[in-house]
Specification:
This protein is an all-alpha fold and 130 residues long. The protein has six helices and no strands.
C-alpha cells in the first residue's frame, strides 16, 4: 500500500480521538457554506444576502477549519491511546462499550483519569484555552 493509502488507513483508525463531527464532516459543512451562502451573497438580480448572517457563518467556517487544522497537526494522540492501553482498551469506543456493559463498575479510580485525559485532549483540539 502506498503512502497515501497508509495515511488514509491511519487517519480512519484515529478519527474516534476527536469525536463527532469528524474532520471530513466539518470540511463538508464549510464547503456547503462556501457553495451556498458565500456564492449567493450577491444575487444575480443585484440584491445581496443578509451580510450579518454571511459574516457570522464565515466566522463559524473559519473556526471549523481551525479545528480541522489542529486535528491534522495533533501530536498528542499517544497520550490518549497510552491511557486507554493502561487499562486494557484499544480505543474509546471499546472503553465506552465496556462502561455500558458494566465491566468497569468499581474501577472508578482507574477509569476516571483516562476519561479526563480523553476530555482534555478533545478540548485542547476543539476549544484551546477552555
Amino acid at each position: 500500500m502506498g503512502r497515501a493509502g497508509s495515511a488514509r488507513r491511519r487517519w480512519s483508525e484515529v478519527t474516534w480521538l476527536y469525536g463527532r463531527p469528524t474532520a471530513a464532516e466539518l470540511v463538508a459543512a464549510v464547503a456547503g457554506f462556501l457553495d451556498n451562502d458565500v456564492r449567493n451573497a450577491t444575487r444575480p438580480d443585484g440584491g445581496s444576502a443578509d451580510a450579518g448572517q454571511v459574516n457570522f457563518h464565515a466566522r463559524v467556517a473559519a473556526n471549523v477549519l481551525r479545528i480541522v487544522e489542529r486535528e491534522l497537526l495533533d501530536t498528542s494522540a499517544g497520550e490518549v491511546t497510552d491511557a486507554l492501553a493502561g487499562i486494557g482498551y484499544r480505543d474509546e469506543p471499546q472503553l465506552a462499550a465496556a462502561i455500558r456493559a458494566g465491566e468497569l463498575d468499581g474501577r472508578a479510580a482507574d477509569v476516571l483519569p483516562v476519561l479526563r485525559t480523553i476530555v482534555r485532549h478533545r478540548l485542547d483540539v476543539n476549544h484551546p484555552g477552555y
